[in-house]
Amino acid sequence: MKFNIKAFAIASGLIYAFVLFVSVLWLMARGYSNQETLLSMVYPGLTISLSGSLLGLSYGLFDGVIIGGLFAWLYNHLAKAFDS
Q: Which residue of 26, 46, 55, 56 is most buried, as measured by CB atoms within 10 A?
């Protein structure tokens, strides 16, 4: 079985973008203001605000596509190497 690298990368990007977007909104709802969070340490410029959630959406899309594409490529490569 092979992964479609492009489709997997796009799906991963969309899912991770949604997760970061909702995470920032959840932190806003919990009352965190612009305190130092793990998200702001990993993603420069990300604040706990509506604009920060939109920035998280773009960070998530970019990171998700890259990581998803690499994962699918590596899976296909290893599946081909170990196929007997």
A: 56
